[in-house]
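Quarterly update from the structural biology core.
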Amino acid sequence: MEKPILDPNYDPRSDGAMREEGKAVRPRHAATLIVVRRDAKKPRLLMGRRAKGHAFMPSKWVFPGGRVDRGDFTAPSASELSPGVEARLALTLRHKSPALPRALAMAAVRETFEEVGLLLAKPAPTRPGVGPWREFLAQGAAPDLAPLQFVARAITPPYRPRRFDARFFMADAEHLVSLDRQPDCGELDEIAWVDLDEALALDLPNITRFVVAEIAERLKGAERPAPFMRFLQGARRLDYL
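Predicted structure, tokenized:
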């Protein structure tokens, strides 16, 4: 397997806000979904631009995602994660909840719906729902977790004021309910389907640029372990899961 080359300037301290001295920030579990569209000459990725006024990564282009909510642990789904994906997600959980891998996947699907109005789902028995899932569960559609591939994990450096332990998932756009956005959804300023070259030309966070390079290798058909980017004792470390 050819490992990605790390940019020596990956997430320098000068690139973004710094946390207050002596104030430790614990990373929050988060999840991101990379949706791949293959109906053109080149594969295209779904990306969105964060609002200029956001405290975290303002004006940056990102994949839809966000932190895990309590409801993600219990929300119903039309399918479950593949055993292989769930096992890889659990590799570094240690004493965390055994339900966390599924909750991460649910968060990735939910955040994609909330931020860009697109839902990865398939028919399921009609049932009551709460929150953002209410309408779809009532209509007999529920999140589809089986297509999700686990492609990367990254923890925000300890010198940032907001930190996330993010897992990156990937799925084909053919598993979306529709390519048409649902009304009253969309927290990102602008949304676009971009090929890999177009994506790398955007104003991207460091980790997003790293993950785009990883996706490029995966789209070539290579079987790859998931890179795990983190900082230990102040030094950057890249492992594989």
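The chain has five helices and eleven strands.
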